[in-house]
TrEMBL record:
<keyword id="KW-0732">Signal</keyword>
<dbReference type="InterPro" id="IPR026045">
    <property type="entry name" value="Ferric-bd"/>
</dbReference>
<protein>
    <submittedName>
        <fullName>Iron(III) transport system substrate-binding protein</fullName>
    </submittedName>
</protein>
<dbReference type="Pfam" id="PF13343">
    <property type="entry name" value="SBP_bac_6"/>
</dbReference>
Length: 346
């Protein structure tokens, strides 16, 4: 049921008392709708949108843009059509921040976050931490035969045993780039490209969707892959796939899915309210329970599934800020010079 206009004013005033940056002042009205561009799936967006509308009376128009989100925000810079960007890796947020596409805004929950999950100037904040882990089908591979680290994926003994996502996936783009950066930091970028080419030579197929990727591992097309941790957990629990997670020696890239206020959005007050709402401990815990999304907010863990508190993984040392300036070019090179190169020789 829609709330009354008076309650909308009260909500705006209540939230405005705590907001920093460009706050909603007491007496300001929330606009009647907010437009959200996202990489999150529609089922997740519907849960957040319905809860926000119930709380504030503000209608949420959302569009799931997947890998096209950043380009859409860029294309609309002169005349923004959205108010909030919700989802995509932190490297994308770094990139768009540098292009002047966000407005700084500090929600009340931001101070609780680890510095790894927030922009110190307030241009974006993490709402979900997303480790990307290697995993294998335990009906096809024994633990002693599984790779111990990412570098092992270039070993010829794994030829034809890998299936991956292509670089249209934001998590795959971030992972390939993070792996390449490990070599760059040692002054060995050429060796990094050689590693990716050898890994490609061992890759049986790339998939355009996560569901097809997991189906391939489940039907034993190949035993080894990598994916976001919650995707592995989902398929192990809900689809009963025999998947085992590998805690890589060098760590797993931890992608921070963020949220930001788009500069020049037509519904700025409602946009701030949505950012405040979507990143709150209450909503992060809700998404943890419904979608196995690992919260960035420490207070949300108490109300999250037990595996989130008990699962341990090493985080790879990735400079996401530095990576943001190189990822697009690196992935263009990967697509043109690495992916499926020499497949006719297999």
């Amino acid at each position: 049921m829609m709330r009354t206009r008076g309650l909308v004013i009260a909500v705006a005033a209540l939230l405005g008392m705590a907001w920093g940056g460009s706050p909603v002042m007491a007496g300001d009205l929330l606009e009647k709708k907010v437009v959200v561009y996202s990489t999150h799936g529609e089922s997740l967006l519907e849960v957040v949108a319905d809860a926000f509308e119930e709380e504030t009376g503000v209608k949420v128009d959302f569009i799931n843009l997947k890998g096209q989100l950043a380009d859409r925000v860029r294309a609309e810079k002169a005349n923004p059509q959205a108010d909030v960007m919700y989802g995509a890796a932190s490297s994308v947020f770094f990139e768009l921040k540098s292009e002047g596409l966000f407005t700084p805004f500090f929600p009340t929950w931001a101070e609780k976050l680890n510095p790894l999950f927030r922009d110190e100037a307030g241009y974006w904040f993490g709402t979900i931490q997303t480790p990307v882990v290697m995993f294998y089908n335990s009906e096809m591979m024994n633990p002693e035969d599984a790779p111990a680290d990412w570098s092992d994926l270039a070993d010829t003994k794994y030829k034809g045993q890998l299936v991956f996502r292509n670089a249209l996936s934001s998590s795959a783009r971030a992972t390939y780039s993070a792996l390449l950066q490990q070599y760059e930091k040692r002054g060995e970028l050429a060796q990094g490209w050689d590693f990716l080419k050898k890994m490609d030579a061992n890759t049986k197929r790339y998939y355009g969707s996560g569901s097809l990727q997991f189906q391939a591992v489940g039907r034993k097309e190949a035993p080894l892959s990598f994916a976001v941790l919650n995707g592995v957990i989902d398929n192990r629990i809900k689809n009963h796939l025999p998947l085992e997670i590998i805690d890589a020696n060098s760590g797993s890239p931890v992608i921070t899915d963020g949220i930001a206020l788009i500069k020049g959005g037509k519904h700025p007050n409602a946009g701030k309210a949505f950012v405040e709402f979507a990143g709150s401990a209450k909503i992060q815990a809700l998404l943890a329970r419904k979608f196995n999304r690992l919260p960035t907010h420490p207070d949300a863990i108490a109300n999250a599934p037990a595996w989130m508190a008990s699962t341990r993984f090493k985080a790879m040392d990735v400079d996401w800020g530095a990576l943001s300036a190189k990822q697009s070019q690196w992935m263009q090179t990967w697509d043109a010079e690495v992916k499926d190169v020499g497949k006719d020789r297999r």
